[in-house]
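Table S2 (text version). Query chain:
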Amino acid sequence: MVRKLLLIVVLMTSMLNVSAQHAYNEAIRKAKAVAEDRTKNLEERKIAAFKREALYYLGSQAYKQMPDSSVTMLDNQALALYQFINLYTNSLLTCAKKERTDIMDLFTGISLAHPKFHDPNKEYVLAYITNQGYLTRFSLDTDWVAAYNDAKKRMGRP
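Corresponding structure-token output:
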């Protein structure tokens, strides 16, 4: 009986890991699909390209620096990345025109304030911040869970 229970727990745990990995991979798949879809408007494709790049970066750094990290971490980071960008874009859409620069600066600052890996390759991780052609001027090296929680708090969201 104990053996069966232990087997069930092990199977359920492995299924959770697979579904978490599936969510991270699904986020990459969706971002890639939008980024490459020429029927979408350019801003949508640029935002999706940032998401794809941020997710690739996250996965690669997690593998290099934290090879024993759980796939749940990647799932949580992917979800928070999407939530952070959704909060950002919704804030831009609903703000007064004169507040737009302040919101962009706020979210950029939040991204910079929450590094995940402390990557010394600043030229690479800050490439989107220095590129004025992108609406998503965030660091690739961001702890998206911490950044999203910070952004929610600052924007007065529960």
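Notes on Table S2: The first helix runs from residue 2 to 35. The chain has seven helices and no strands.
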